[in-house]
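Please fill in the sequence for the structure shown.

STRUCTURE ENCODING:
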């Protein structure tokens, strides 16, 4: 494996980490460093989105009114071919309610798959797909600010 491929894999892994941290810190602007402006997304067949702005708005609508969360990603599989790449990784996301729902929790387990392209500013996801394998708890804690 070449150093160029290893570097690309690491850069994509770091972008996936920025995705998780942006969610937990509610740093929506950081998602500009993960997604291409024209990204398409499919969240477990429930939400099909076109464009980074729609993706961020959907994320805010779910996490904006939720209490603390922790998005863990791991078991990265990243294949790079030139300026394109494919990634897969597991996701485990924990969420706590806020206010009168602070005693409730919601957790989801699944996998993210993404198609990436290298742009001058770095790797950006063009397609984002979430598979949900298991949900535990009270999904109603998710919601807008």
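FILLED IN BY: designer on duty
SEQUENCE:
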């Amino acid at each position: 494996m070449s150093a160029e491929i290893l570097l690309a894999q690491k850069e994509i892994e770091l972008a996936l980490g920025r995705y998780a941290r942006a969610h937990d810190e509610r740093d929506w602007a950081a998602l500009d460093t993960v997604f291409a402006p024209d990204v398409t997304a499919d969240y477990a067949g429930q939400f099909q989105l076109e464009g980074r702005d729609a993706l961020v708005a959907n994320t805010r609508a779910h996490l904006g009114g939720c209490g603390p969360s922790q998005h863990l990603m791991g078991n990265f599989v990243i294949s790079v071919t030139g300026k394109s790449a494919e990634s897969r990784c597991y996701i485990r996301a924990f969420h706590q309610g806020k206010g009168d729902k602070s005693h409730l929790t919601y957790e989801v387990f699944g996998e993210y798959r993404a198609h990436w392209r290298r742009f001058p500013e770095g790797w950006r996801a063009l397609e984002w797909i979430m598979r949900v394998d298991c949900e535990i708890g009270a999904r109603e804690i998710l919601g807008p600010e």
